[in-house]
Amino acid sequence: MEISRREFIHRMMTLGFSTAAATALFPLAACSKETAPLPISPNAPPSTTAPSPTPTLTTPAVTDGLAVVRGKSPSAITEAAVKALGGIERFVKPGNTVIIKPNICVAYHTYEYAATTNPEVISTLVRLCRGAGAQKVSVMDQPFGGTAEQAYLRSGIQEAVRAAGGEMVIMSRAGFKETNIPEGKDIKKWMVYNDALEADVLINVPIAKHHSLARLTLSMKNLMGLVLDRPQFHFNLPQRVADLASLLRPELTVIDAVRILTRNGPTGGSLDDVKMMNTVIAGTDFVAMDAYAATLFGLTGADIPVVRAAAGMGLGMMDLSKVKITEISV
Fold first, then answer.
1. Options 3.20.20.100, 3.10.25.10, 3.30.110.30, 3.40.50.11440; which CATH number does 66-329 get?
2. pTM for the whole thing?
3. Alpha-carbon span 147 to 150, nearest angstrom
């Protein structure tokens, strides 16, 4: 079975390899569809140990805690949240290619309407990635309303990203490829944006907001911007989003809750529906993060069908009592 570079590294890390070791092994593994036998010394005694069972594909995500940072400056709280996780260097190494996936939902509202990710949150992440030595930092999305060019400009994200040293990418149809989803329960393959599969680092940066069908759109739902035929996803939406999350598994997720959209999502349109929270949530367990973000709306993770589906697949921890949550004010 052919797998992407990022998926191979994820699987090696679950078996105890370091990121560097897994990356070094990828060229050898990618050149063959068969598993090469391990070398055996001619002087080695015959093994009397039974072979270890082959690990299953579904493994619980490692819950290493969430950073919840509050303050008036979107840039400062974003940087503090990443620092609380160990710094951007934990995720981005010199020479890496990085894709940042915000929510750039519409071309007819500025970010103040809480339908699109805050530009300062995005530009701060671009700056941090470049400072860590990233070779290229690309930012992209597929808007729900209007063209990408219009939405990139109107949201304020384009100007902020370019000023920070990143690039905005228009996602062409030719960039998608049919991709197997080994752990998928409802969907086993889909057209997924290939660069997101092949990048060294994927950073998911949704805005926390109401959604008329999903109840809330948070980190996992935001990944739908990396697939084609999104209307088809709305058949059994919670499970299909969880299936997609099992494939993409971003290295870092940062939820923008500087402003949240409390009603009439996902596009919004009235400032009366926007609530200032001045909060950023960062972590690696997207199930726990979405469960925490739900509390900003007076809900729990169990109230959100996508979160329940992903937790049922072992993709993360929905029970926040078992998650270390570090809260910081800046």
1. 3.40.50.11440
2. 0.83
3. 5
